[in-house]
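Need tokens for this chain, all 411 residues.
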Amino acid sequence: MRSIRDLIGVALSGLTARVSRTLLIMLGPIIGVSAIVAAVGLTESAKGDLQQDLAELGTNLITAEAAGSFGTQNPTFPEDVRDRVLALSGVESATATQSITGVVTAPYDAAATYYTAFPTPVLTADSAFLEVMQIELRSGRWLNDFDYNTGARVAVIGLDVANEFEYRAGTNRTIQINGLDYGIVGVYEPVKLVTNFNTAVLIPPLTADNDFDVGLETNTIYVRADPTRVVEVEEALPVAINLGGSDEVNTSVPSDALEAAAAADSTLQIIVASMGILALVVGGVGIANVMSISVIQRSAEIGIRRALGHGRSVIAWQFLLEAVAVGFFGGLGGLAVGVLIVVYASHIAGWTYVLEPVLVVGGYEFPSEFLGVPTIYVLGMGAALFTSVVAGLYPSVKAARLEPLETLRLG
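Here are the structure tokens for all 411 residues:
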């Protein structure tokens, strides 16, 4: 064997001669690398989906709720709260709602008992609701001026309610609120920033006051602020609403929850990636074990080659190259499986899949690319190769130490 090419050829022939065994020892790198790539890719895809939602929905929505001394059991804002908020510098738009308590919503009379135990939220909504919340209608229409001015018994429902009540677009359908029939005029798409609206029924404020004597006050207001002044507006809202009084106002930014969820994904990324590294370690033990047995099984081959003049270093390099080949091809297989998992799972979940994920460890963020290749792929291949080299060292040394006469005893 006079060249590296010959040495590589012998190493590859040793692997291809026992295909089943080779595939089995490649499972360790495949599982380990695919787990690392999938962990980082899926968490980044989930974050990418959240970031896309935030880009579409904006991070400038602020929620203000009446609390404390605004009332006791059901605190409310003054009737002119929306005007007070709109007069605040930095506010672009606002919509106010009131949660109506003590009412039972059911698709029909016989279901009232069930929905008493599992109530559906009922809220009032004004004409600015869709614009401020950035909600699209799935079917039908929104509440119009006639509905608001006459107190018509009409409702717009969330998609989850429509599915639960088995409502179908284009049909004349009513629901019952405390035994009163309300016509469904529209169904709106899911709301990502304020998810409790997905299971809600929205009705005109005047209708709510006429039927349930709740007044025209509201208890929650949603504000769209100048994106560069969100913190400033959030801090100023309580003063603008209570006019510097002692009435309590709780404010929050719903998009903060989505951003916190994205941060939580980074922790999950580290956990699952660590499991992938553990799989690589276990795979490395498997490589060392199988190749050690292979040395004994191929002792006759080693003895013949030693008798023909091949030195110990050549024998050692052959087995080490076999281990490297297992790590290399296992790593490539792991990358392919990991990418397929990311693409398929992202498609099923409806995420925006990210094939150049970013790995964050201990607060350090690795670059997304290394020499034009996604860094996580380079790290995954590197880990597979490193594990294989370490695992192949012992079998290689063991094979190199065999003497020609000893191989007769073993084989």
